[in-house]
Amino acid sequence: MPGPTTEPRNGRRRVAVVGVALSDCGRVDGPTPYALHAQAARRALADSGLDRSVIDGFASAGLGTLAPVEVAEYLGLRPTWVDSTSVGGSTWEVMAAHAADAIAAGRANAVLLVYGSTARADIKARRRTSNLSFGARGPLQFEVPYGHTLVSKYAMAARRHMHEYGTTLEQLASVAVQARANAAANPDAMFRDPITVDEVLSGEMIADPFTKLHCCIRSDGGCAVLLAAEGYVPDTAKAPVWILGSGTSVSHTTMSEWEDFTVSPAAVSGRIAFERAGVTPADVDIAQIYDAFTYMTLVTLEDLGFCAKGEGGAFVEKGRLLRDGELPVNTDGGGLSACHPGMRGLFLLVEAVRQLRGEAGPGRQVTKRGGRLPEVAVASGTGGWFCSSGTVILGR
Hints:
Elements: E1 15-22, H1 33-48, E2 57-59, H2 69-75, E3 81-83, H3 91-104, E4 110-117, H4 119-124, H5 150-165, H6 169-183, H7 197-201, E5 205-207, E6 210-211, E7 221-229, E8 241-250, H8 266-277, E9 286-289, H9 294-304, H10 312-316, H11 334-337, H12 345-357, E10 376-383, E11 388-395
Parallel strand pairs: 2-3, 2-4, 9-10
Antiparallel strand pairs: 1-7, 1-8, 4-7, 5-6, 8-11, 10-11
Helix pairs in contact: 6-9, 8-9
């Protein structure tokens, strides 16, 4: 297939998402993580309508000793541009930002981002005992010996927000309730039965104030996203979704270096992304936000500018996050209900693109007044314990 035919504008090309797909997700006991990578990659390429020969860039993290070299080899790719950035759940938004910049500058033409994990199946089969270990070396040596787990760090931050702003347990629980309601119409979601605020509050305590339903699920699954230069768009199978702008930021790794537990690095990455995209939070129709815990959704909404700092509790409790709400958030059910195989950030981009294309399906597709499709979406990933953030603005 010939290369891009559209000349760069002012030295930079526009960049589109031209293909997205999920692998099998949820409870997937047979395939290896490599197989899930391959399945998602094949499906995303088929979704784009392009030939695999156009792919000259590849991004992957979380699998293999030499990621992304091992995964690229497994897929039969020989890329000339690669990225193995690994910053937790925000990895994929950061990688998308890197890939978009590379394509815009002409250093790559089509970049495939792909992820796959059998986190749930591995634990069930006792191939490992935990999803993830950050070890106890370096700065973490000052926290790990005292039982300061990942979930406890998020829990501490949530408690601080409650102390500073009066945020309530019921408000945090409402985030989980709305995520489950959004998952109800998603056939790919792992959990679809409705839950109530009382059920969230009465669940097993994991790390105060988080009960089990405040925390993301454990699943298997993978997904892939193909970004390409604008010159390929005429040959794609579907209408493009454009990368309008992106921003990245890192904050801290030790809690003692986190200046304010109530402010995440999305406050920086979001501001940069909106400025580069030339839009504001008021222009956004849907938001896909990393939600390993309910507090993540609440504080990220504040930091992206959808409500003022400290007003996240009041914002989320009024049903605004539902598919037909004021700001539909995590319309697939998110990590709290749909799927969370590990570094979930790439799933945010897949869902944002499907919603903008109008492909979410009956009972799940977001529409604007008059039945029009959404036009602008934000995908914001968080890594570590609010250590990093990547925000991508997409538009039709």
